[in-house]
Amino acid sequence: MADVREAITRAHHEEWARVVAALARRFGDLDIAEEAAAEAFAAAVERWPSDGVPPNPGAWLTTTANRKAIDRIRRENKRDDKQQEARMLYDRSEPHGAGGAIDDERLRLIFTCCHPALATESRVALTLRMVGGLTVPEIARAFLVQENTMGRRITRAKTKIKAAGIPYRVPAAEELPARVSGVLAVLYLVFNEGYLASGPATDPVRHDLTAEAIRLTRLIRSLMPEDGEVAGLLALMLLTEARRPARVSASGELVSLDEQDRGAWDAALIAEGHRLVRERLASGMAPGRYQILAAINAVHTSARDVRDTDWSQILALYDQLVRLDGSPVVALNRAVAVAEIDGPEVALAAVDRLEDTLAGYHAYHVTRADLLRRLGRGQESRAAYDRAIELAGNTAEIAYLTRRRDQLG
User: Fold this and answer.
1) pTM score, two decimals?
2) Domain CATH code at residue 357
3) pLDDT digits (tens, 9 = 90+) for 267-321
4) Domain edge (last residue) among 200, 220, 237
5) Residue 261: left (phi > 0), alpha (psi -120 to 50), or beta?
6) Nearest to residue 107, comparing CAs of 224, 204, 198, 9?
7) Which of 102, 131, 176, 342 is found 20 to 30 A from 95 (Cα to Cα)?
8) Contact call for residues 304 and 280 (beta carbons, < 8 A)
């Protein structure tokens, strides 16, 4: 029984986006695609324990989902309308009469979910649901909003796609530059959800999501090889993913960067990430946000030992990033570098100025707890750890923070 549950979980991680994308392509309706996919997985939960796991779970799920979708359309007695609508969307998806630059259903799906007719927050939420397969509660935690608010946001986005007749396709070459930035933002958030999963019932690190984000970013890079931010995001993901083998201990606890076994890092991913960063530097073009973040990670992964980290270079890169992105999260991360250069007291003053905007963000309290700890202010540090634990959703991080708090006595 445990093996079947594991197989269903693995199938959901690996096949959800494929099933939804295939149904969206066929029926031209995201609601039908999502609901039929969900029903197919529910059928797997019911039938696989007795029937056994099928040899090809993805094919079984897609076939079952297609039947569920057709059954729903028949029940609604709107089959002709739905087929006509799907045909119209399909016809417009290939305006030049030939296949798209990349024939991948999931890439078509992500460009549909990231259409500029949708608000940015809706694009991200819809893609996390439709492509990433995250639940509404998981997405709500990622955005620090209520579940019902996030549910309405996703519903409105799907309704707008249907009402506006947004086509299910990879944009034409002339449209790509204007469209790609929204896609990159979505992919970065999908990657981050995998890198530090927010759901208490999920694995603390979801390699399926990080791998999917990297795969799709590689596809977009092949489509736009000269785009610096696409290359920057890919480099950032690779350098972050390279550290994954050392991020969670055998006991299931998050391992901080300064405590990680650097010998366990993926040398091939680091080499590829560094090469991309060097290529962007050699281009002479002004770097964008993702390129700077990738450069920061390149500095971290260049140090053989944490004591060799070039914090002056990292702080200089954050100063450059602040000019492009003055968000409080960037300011918080910059403060970590400030602590290494100017000391924890100066950094704490900078962090405390962010309280009004980041009071509900667990990483704010984690950073405060660490700085207060270094300053010997144990009682305040413990209170900050308590608040961070309360807000954190990742099981491995909660275990790490709890140990750090309890060490204070």
Assistant:
1) 0.75
2) 1.25.40.10
3) 999 999 999 999 999 999 999 999 999 999 999 999 999 999 999 999 999 999 9
4) 200
5) beta
6) 224
7) 131
8) no
Q: Which amino acid is at 343?
A: G
Amino acid at 237: M
**Is 366 a member of any domain?**
yes
Q: Are the C-beta atoms of 107 and 219 separated by less than 8 Å?
A: yes
CA atoms of 295 and 107, how far apart (whole Å):
27
> CB neighbours of 169 closer than 8 A, spacing ≥ 6?
92, 93, 94, 95, 100, 108, 111, 112
Name the token pair of 9: 């979980």
Provide the token pair at 300. Answer: 């971290």
* Amino acid letter, residue 296: I
* The token pair that represents 35 in the structure block: 């609901």
Backbone region of residue 80 per phi and psi (left: phi > 0; alpha: psi in -120 to 50; beta: other values): alpha
Q: What is the pLDDT of residues 195-254, one digit of tens each?
A: 887 766 667 877 878 988 898 899 889 878 889 999 999 999 999 999 999 999 999 999
**Which SS3 state, helix, strand or coil, does residue 145 take?**
coil
- List the structure tokens of 400: 């790490």
The amino acid at residue 240 is T
Q: Which domain does 348 fall in, by range?
A: 310-409
User: What is the rounded CA–CA span in Å between residue 289 and residue 233?
Assistant: 9
The number of beta carbons lying within 10 Å of the beta carbon of residue 336 is: 20
Residue type, position 173, single letter: A
At 192 the three-state DSSP class reads helix
